[in-house]
Amino acid sequence: MLGLLVFHTGFFLFIVHRYDISGSVVPRFVISTVSIHLLLLAFLLFMRRKFYIIPSSHRLVHVNIANLLTMYRLTATPTILFLLILNQNYSLVSILLVFTSAAFLTDLLDGVISRATGQTTRIGQYLDSMADYAVLIVVSIAFVYYGLISRWFFALVLARLLTQFTAQGFLLIYQGHVRPIASPLGKASIFVTMTLYAFAILSLVERIRSFSLAVTQVFEIGAAGVIVVSIVEKGFILYGEIQRARRRKMFARRARQAEVPPTGEQ
């Protein structure tokens, strides 16, 4: 966590120095990025029992590469946000495109690496969901503010995120625990949204702004289709999880009843 904090802070300070950026942006960035890193550190300490490989349940000796990539994507959120804000007054499009694309690519690489090395972890599943939604929420708000994406697409992205949070919250209340569920369509919806956002950044280049916005609007339609299907899939997944939880509760209740002798029997 300290290494990630030093990297993000050092990178942002380099940009500030390179482009002679003045004002109170540095203290605000430092407060934001330190807060994110401390919150993530607290979460990791709280979830330290989840640092094991699945399905073998072998304990991790240290954070593996796949987890580190996911943690990088999550901690990159303040940097992306502040770069988007600074781009209003400074020409940071190329840096913003490279940095944001690198953060988005980790969503693909962490899964590929974890499966290829047999290092899929329970903590990684939690971190992956957190990183995806944190980045999408922050970038979506900034993009709709700058007019880089349509408001209806922004609403659809929020609906997708709300569906995910609602489903997990309901399961947590209903059965007392929740496990992250990654589906191909769910990952596809995240990937196409991140790809769309990486391309939408090109709209910040004045010379190709009109062309890029037109292409982005077309791409939005295809991405929206994937998101809608993933929302429907999430509904079916939630229904299946509820049915399994009901069966577990029913079997547990029957088991308890079988252990209690009828009245009058010793």
What does this molecule look like?
This protein is an all-alpha fold. The protein has helices at 2-18, 25-46, 65-75, 77-86, 93-116, 122-146, 151-175, 184-200, 209-259, and strands at residues 52-53, 58-59. It has one domain. Strands 1-2 form a two-stranded antiparallel ribbon. A hairpin with a 4-residue loop joins strand 1 and strand 2. Helix 6 (122-146) runs antiparallel to helix 7 (151-175) and helix 8 runs antiparallel to helix 9. The longest helix is centred in the last third of the chain and has 51 residues, at 209-259. The model has no long low-confidence stretch (mean pLDDT 85).
* Biggest pleated sheet: 2 strands, antiparallel
Q: What's the helical proportion of residues?
A: over 70%
N to C succession of SSEs? HHEEHHHHHHH
Compute the CA-based radius of gyration. Answer: 22 Å
Binned strand content: under 5%
Helices, by number, come to 9
N-to-C terminal Cα separation, in Å?
59 Å
What is the tally of beta strands? 2
> Which runs of at least 5 residues are low in confidence (pLDDT < 50)?
none
Q: How many domains make up the coordinates?
A: 1
Major sheet: arrangement of strands: 1-2
Overall shape: globular
Structural class determined from secondary elements: mainly alpha
Determine the mean pLDDT: 85
